[in-house]
Design goal:
This protein has one domain: MetI-like (MetI-like fold). It has 13 helices and 2 strands; from the N terminus they run αββαααααααααααα.
Length: 289
């Protein structure tokens, strides 16, 4: 009986294993092989083994270094905003009130919109000549002339990070709301009987028990931030002031036609994302023990 159950388990999992090998393992092996060869279709179609030279080239490229700094800015700013907005919204939605279902439906709308659509909506707001933001600030006499919002690196990274946070914050809210609803109400009632204030209950009950959900929200935010592309492309094109690592992969691969270095840079992004995710997981695992 045990042997038959073991064979049944292998039969049921075999299709999944085959699909993983075909669509994950095989492309990964091809990617590793491609990153170790010089494949520059702008020069020739021949492949030449270069080992780690592609990785050295992309890591020493000044454009890549600038893209790393921009991506770090997107990650830090957008994830921080997503966590703050998501936590505030989750706390507000945790208590039942009239119309909460409608609020939740409206809340999920920015996350449901494609990144290109979100970028187009915000491009109308941030347009330097006819944008809503310039018009409002002029009416309030905050500024005295139309401002080019994407004229500097600081403004570009900050505004694009805000747009990114606007799209991902609804998902963060849902993750944290699910964590809040999993906290037993008895803990809050017992703390209130003992005379604990609202801040004390939030600090010593809500935050510690919400840390697994916070870790998931930070992980999702980091993965999305390291892969940001469409919002930047719509708002500011391929300008060097806001270029991300993923956009650098696109330019290296499909504009420079250097597939070897493009794949190598993609693996660098994967490694950086994995390091950040592992940092989150180990940090919050240590705190929740």
């Amino acid at each position: 009986m045990t042997r038959e159950m073991a064979w049944l388990g292998w039969v049921l999992t075999a299709p999944v294993v085959v699909l993983m090998v075909v669509f994950v393992v095989y492309p990964l092996v091809l990617g590793v092989n491609m990153s170790a060869h010089s494949i520059d279709f702008g020069v020739s179609t021949t492949q030449r083994f270069v080992g780690l030279q592609n990785y050295t080239n992309v890591l020493t490229n000044p454009d890549t270094k600038a893209a790393v700094l921009h991506t770090a800015g997107y990650w830090i700013i957008s994830v921080s905003l997503e966590l703050l907005i998501g936590l505030a919204a989750a706390l507000a939605l945790n208590r039942p009130f009239r119309g909460r279902g409608l609020v939740l439906a409206l809340l999920i709308l920015p996350w449901a919109l494609p990144g290109v659509v979100s970028g187009l909506l915000w491009s109308r707001i941030l347009d330097p000549s006819t944008g809503l933001l310039n018009s409002v600030l002029l009416q309030l006499h905050v500024i005295h002339s139309y401002k080019l919002w994407f004229s500097s690196t600081v403004w570009s990274v900050t505004l694009i990070s805000f747009v990114q946070a606007w799209t991902v914050a609804p998902l963060t809210t849902l993750i944290l709301l699910g964590g809040l609803q999993g906290i037993p109400r008895d803990l809050y009632e017992g703390a209130a009987v003992d005379g604990a204030s609202g801040y004390s209950r939030f600090r010593y009950i809500t935050l510690p028990l919400l840390q697994p959900s916070i870790a998931i929200a930070l992980t999702v935010g980091a993965v999305v931030a390291f892969g940001i592309f469409d919002v930047i492309f719509v708002l500011n094109g391929t300008a060097l002031e806001s270029r991300s690592l993923m956009m650098q992969v696109y330019l290296t691969t499909f504009e420079d036609l250097n597939f070897g270095e493009g794949v190598a840079l993609a693996f660098v992004i994967t490694a950086l994302t994995a390091l950040v995710v592992l940092f989150y997981l180990f940090a919050f695992r240590r705190r929740t023990r």
